[in-house]
Specification:
80 residues, rod-shaped, two-stranded antiparallel ribbon, alpha+beta
Length: 80
């Protein structure tokens, strides 16, 4: 693969990592616990989908790998 192709693949992996990370986050509304004085309304809790967060981490790693390959290939072509 050429340096440009590796760089393009790295960008695609990076975009996929960001999208998966964004999709893994969420929030839910729950009733508050019984306290004194009582709390009115709902509480929002942040939740993450573990497998999507893992997939985002793998995608980020692939992006780093292809970025490294693009840099190494680019440096090798300039030295010749």
């Amino acid at each position: 693969m050429s340096a440009r192709r590796n760089a393009g693949v790295a960008v695609v992996w990076a975009i996929l990592a960001v999208v998966l990370w964004w999709l893994s986050k969420g929030s839910i509304r729950v009733l508050p616990p019984a306290t004194d004085p009582p709390v009115e309304g709902y509480l929002e809790q942040s939740v993450t989908t573990t497998w999507m967060l893992l997939a985002a981490t793998v995608a980020a790693g692939m992006s780093l790998l292809f970025t490294t390959l693009a840099i190494l290939r680019g440096a090798g072509l300039k030295a010749r």
